[in-house]
Amino acid sequence: MRNTIDKINNYLQVGGMFNPELMEHHKVSDLLLECRKQLMKAQEALLPFAKEATHWVTYDDDEPVVEHFPGYEGEMVVGDLRRAFNVLEEK
User: Fold this and answer.
1) What's the number of domains the chain is made of?
2) Region at 71 (left for phi over 0; alpha for psi -120 to 50; beta for the rest)
3) What are the beta bridge partners of residue 77?
């Protein structure tokens, strides 16, 4: 995802923010497709956390979660699960 963010920053720095008509349309299209791919990967990674949030509705945000989630290291609290859920629910 870092590579995609760098590409977006580069696009904006070379004038894409103020003169998007100067950019080559196929490059903009490629960038948008890459952004969509990365967002879909992030959404897929958040899904297990968001689903788990529905099981913790009566707990405070600072309540520790003891389950282990693959790919997640460190301490997790219920508020982390709720934030994942909220990100996926954004319209």
Assistant:
1) 1
2) left
3) 64
The SS3 assignment for 54 reads: coil
**pLDDT score, position 69:** 66
Question: CA 53, CA 65: separation in Å to the nearest integer?
Answer: 10
Q: Which residues of 31-59 are buried (b: 16+ CB within 10 A; e: fewer)?
A: beeeeeeeeeeeeeebeebbebbeebeeb
| Residue 59 lies in domain | 2-89
Q: What is the pLDDT of residues 33-73, one digit of tens each?
A: 888 888 888 888 888 888 888 888 899 999 888 766 666 67
Identify residue 53 by its one-letter amino acid code.
Answer: A
What would the two tokens of residue 1 be? Answer: 């995802």
